[in-house]
């Protein structure tokens, strides 16, 4: 699975409420000065590390519907007949929770009759009654659905919070490429990844970071949430950034300026690097969106290596004036040198919700 998903001429560049901590009151020198509040700004360790995401989907996702041929030669699609749709998530069959694709067929063939499905469709939970069909091909009862229960991909870490030991990555959701549905996390892990090669982006064809990750190596953390504004979880141990010896302050969208900034990302030398970009447009927002800034890659090193922004770079932190202000989320399909960025405040808000 690739964490990329094409939509409206854009493609996700992969697989925040500003939080200000108020310190204790301190007394100013007593030469006619009043006591003042000392405000401690939140700080984060910037990411840029290439990471693997392995995720078990909560429930079983329907990615296709098919006709079943019966013993008498009739072709029936029981799923469509009952009203199932691609993108539906099967949670229970006759009250039995199902977590794996293999469990669906096992439960259905134990029942050998009508089944009641508990299904999640976007934000709604539905109860659907369905009559399975006995297939001529193998003699098994079937619902007429293709299902999946796992997904994996490569992306980029955005930040690590040294206080809460939490992390955020991608800046957008992991979606199912067949359905476009945001996948609900049952359990998952953030893993160390090694970039193998870079497919350069061209006009009309987004590039791609190709990498591998190893289950045997120590995972970076546990995945808790997959949302429209990033994936979030808790790290198993501190995560360091080789380019910065201390955390950076979080920048609000009001502190973002047009002009020079940087992104941190990892290419096929597997070395975390900083590349110059230009922030061309800022859309100040009252509601969360993953398209808060338009950025353009100006660093010749990155342009020569990848052509600009490619899939797998989503989550690359955007740094300006030594503040973390956001993350890369999309690349323009018709101009891989440009893309969108999300404000870091929306990621932090989503992580805290």
UniProtKB/TrEMBL annotation:
Keywords: Hydrolase. It comes from the Bacteria. Residues 124-353 form the Peptidase S55 domain. Gene3D superfamilies: 2.30.42.10. GO terms for molecular function: hydrolase activity. Its EC number is 3.4.21.116. InterPro entries: PDZ, PDZ_6, PDZ_sf, Peptidase_S1_PA, Peptidase_S55, SpoIVB. It is an enzyme of class 3 (hydrolase). It holds the Pfam family Peptidase_S55. SMART domains: PDZ (SM00228). Residues 48-123 form the PDZ domain. NCBIfam families: spore_IV_B (TIGR02860). This is SpoIVB peptidase. It comes from Zhenpiania hominis. The gene is spoIVB.
